Amino acid sequence: MPMKRVTRSDVAKEAGTSVAVVSYVINGGPRPVAEATRQRVLAAIQKTGYRPNSIAKALVSGTTHAYGLILPNIANPFLSSVAHALQQEAFKHGQVLLPGDSGDNRRREKELLNNLLNRQIDGLLYTSVDRHPYIDLIQASGTPCVMLDWVNAGSNVSAIRVNERIAAFKVTQHLAQHGYRDIAIICGPLEMLNTQDRLSGWGDALIQANVTICDEWIFPAEYTRQGGYEAALQMLKGKRPRALFATNELQAFGCLRALAENGLAVPDDIALVCFNATQQSQFNVPSLTAVRQPIDKMAQTAIEILRTWNGTAQEREFEFELQIGESCGCKLK
Q1: Please, is 62 exposed, middle or buried when counting C-beta atoms within 10 Å of its C-beta (0-12, 13-18, 19+)?
Q2: Where would I find the HTH lacI-type domain in this sequence (predicted)?
Q3: CATH (domain of 272)
């Protein structure tokens, strides 16, 4: 049989006071309470195990001390690291983070969004499935929001981001600077906007290096280990490239498996770089040369925008880091 929930009446009975006095102690007012009485109430709260109703308190104070977070797939190590950094930063400022995983599903994303907004969260941190956020729902609720990705100009929504096209250009350029000419790409699904940015950056680097863009070396795949594995196997059925850009860390791990199964070594046979690396890339053998986003700095900025929200949208673009590993052919000391 479940235990009965402790109420303020139980605390008042234990302390020998009225329920109103208990409320004054818990809420810090609006009327003063004698120190001796206050101590009796606090002792009664501890003895009974009473916990204030956070929902009711939120209705009175106008704040829930909670931010919502919606991500496309929290199983992705990069997105998990983003969620962790945001959680740590929110906690520093007395906020809890309520995470939601849309599972790369637009319908589920909308359901999560409505659920969080109905809880009257103090702010929302949001990455939409393929950059199609439900801006109208957010703005209608009046909830402060920071998009953790690119957003259409004129949306009047705050956003933090790294320029993915430029980042893809830089990491592909690094391959070209090694002297590699035959550079393939394992990208995401072609209809996705972030795929298009990363594909464009790859193409920009090839054009700058006077290398002809070969459609036969574009291998779309899901942003998963399995996607990278299957794309690499497909790639090996044709003319083998000398270098490869995987546009996601998970894809790169799947690719490494496929290459090893076919007796190919990285970087000796095929050089490899990737996008959105986590610490896993540094501890892989070989370590991966990859684009890394300044996640901690971005998390600090996102939480600060929510904390100081004044109704004016802000956009912040961050510099990425090109993490040099062994997979590209660089010899590390």
Answers
A1: exposed
A2: 6-61
A3: 3.40.50.2300
- 283 burial via Cβ count (<10 Å: 0-12, 13-18, 19+): exposed
**Is residue 134 domain-shared with residue 242, that is, in the same domain?**
no
Domain identity same for 227 and 313: no
Provide the domain limits for residue 100.
Answer: 65-162+295-318
Alpha carbons within 13 A on the beta-carbon side of 290 = 26
185 and 271 co-located in one domain: yes
Residues of the chain with pLDDT under 50: 1-2, 55, 59, 61
Q: How many CB atoms are located within 10 Å of the residue 89 CB?
A: 21
* High-pLDDT (> 70) share of the chain, %: 93
Question: Are 98 and 83 contacting, i.e. CB atoms less than 8 angstroms apart?
Answer: no
* C-alpha Rg value of the chain to the nearest Å: 26
Phi-psi region of 114 (alpha: psi -120 to 50; beta: other; left: phi over 0): alpha
Q: How many domains does the chain have?
A: 3
pLDDT of residue 161: 92
